[in-house]
């Protein structure tokens, strides 16, 4: 994402002379950007739907208004992040890449594998892969844990609650 | 004597074998997740939602409610024994409770927490039973305009009383309302924001949002933190029964905490965290004996007051949910969602249309509180053992249960993927210090709010002034506005930040 120029035409002119373009709160600045993008996105999308009249509001009425409100709130947050000093720039800080990527990708793999591999293969895979998100990951423990969790889930969801989950991989029949 | 007759009906429902079992299951699970740091009631309720859909509405809600107030009990155990709040609202309990444990009074601290909570729970149940019908009566007179304004007030109140930046919280509410717009329009049948994906015609699943942001999201946040060494007081727990002097200190504190908690719990967004913080500062100001242990060094009142307050608030926060259909916090939002899926329209009509559910749920809270005292005092040893379970075993279990739950929502892998997307979104919001709870509230209320807004405008022939000309609606909006203005006063906003600084 490109950094927006804070000195654009509708910049905060009312600020005192010594206002600087330094971002005083990183977190607020990027929250503001995010809300502006999402708000205008929703409002833009609402243009596809009929507005109706005020007396007979259509499907686009409510989301368009909300989108504008969100974008406006985002703009306020963004301007505030340039004005008010917060402790040490309020940096976003390090991102926990390992847990984030491991958990999300093991979820995605589970989503793909459940329908073709079935619960008895896809679930231990999920338990094992997600265990790798921790720095304290140990092979043997994770395998044992995965087996126990699969057994437990089968007992609770399939045997106990009678939910219909595919159990076996496609090549072993239904 | 309507109240007695109603409670009689309620206890009849609550004491059926099936409902006793589910109340028990709920409080056990609640205590369990309260004890385990890193797993909160929001994630747990979200995790269980798909499974409880196989139950009838009454046992399902009894179970979910049990988890919610059970977690308040369990959270204090962790706070006292290892100085880690198992639950956000037990942050305050950790201050004096942990110090008591370090002085060898862990047993007394645990007993104080459990007994104060029990007392508060009993009073809270009575408050719910007494006030819910009154509010229901009032709510029946509301038209769409009044309802819309009430929801505005509910959402504003929820963010004003919560911690963190007010502007960002309001933005999160609006974003939640917008995400609630991803659905087929009820009036015209137009599919909005579906991006051509058939699964989105019925809207985003609120379980996927809750699990992504609270279940998976919290795991990532927890794993991203460095592992700290914990000191567990497992051997010191004996001498549970407080002395006579302890009782003398603790009873007035528990009374004050209960009163405060019952009041704050009813407010939108009030809930447990605010109550325990306020009760603690009240106890600090209250007059005390000369030779008392100072606060922060193991004062028994610092445990009794906040514990009573958060449990009373946990009970009374059911009032807005049950009578108005307006959830005051994220757990209640999930319960409203559960009711909708089970075919019960939340709102004032629940009490008349489903009296079994309404009064059964209230009575079950008292029953559940009694079970909790038994679970937490004599059986404390079992819970302490659980504290030693390492997180690396725990979080894959959460991932597994959440994922299976997501699949069984609609027997569709789409919900698993949307859970993944909201995990990423949840982490982004965490990094930007935007709280996810207001988003969930907005998401749940969004469709109801839009419907009422459009109906109100339809009735008034497009005249927006209807929201001001109706006295009730105008009053609600004025209260909402003044709440915002009030917290924007510089001195108050500074205090508000200080109050949550320990969060």
Number of DSSP helical runs of chain A: 5
User: Biggest chain pair contact, residues each?
Assistant: A-B, 78 and 62 residues
- The average pLDDT of chain B is 83
So what's the overall shape of chain B?
globular
Q: Could you state the oligomeric state of the chains shown? A: heterodimer
What coarse outline of chain A follows from CA principal-axis ratios?
flat
Counting helices, strands and paired strands, the structural category of chain A is mainly alpha
Radius of gyration from the alpha-carbon trace of chain A, in angstroms: 25 Å
What is the end-to-end distance of chain A?
47 Å
N→C terminal distance of chain B: 44 Å
Number of strands of chain B: 0
Main beta sheet of chain B: none
Strand coverage percent of chain A: under 5%
Low-confidence stretches of chain A: 1-18
Fold and architecture overview:
The complex is a heterodimer of chains A (174) and B (503). Chain A is an all-alpha fold and 174 residues long. Chain A has 2 domains: 26-89; 97-172, no CATH class. Helix content of chain A is 57%, strand content 2%. Chain A is built from 5 helices and 2 strands; from the N terminus they run αββαααα. Chain A has helices at 26-46, 61-83, 97-117, 119-131, 139-160; strands at residues 52-53, 56-57. Chain A has a two-stranded antiparallel sheet. In chain B, helix 2 (17-35) crosses helix 16 (355-376) and helix 10 packs parallel to helix 12 (301-316). Chain B starts with a helix and ends with a helix. Chain B has 503 residues and is mainly α. The mean pLDDT of chain B is 83. Chain B is globular and about 70 Å long. Chains A and B meet through helix 1, strand 2, helix 2, helix 3 and helix 4 of A and helix 8, helix 9, helix 18, helix 19 and helix 20 of B.
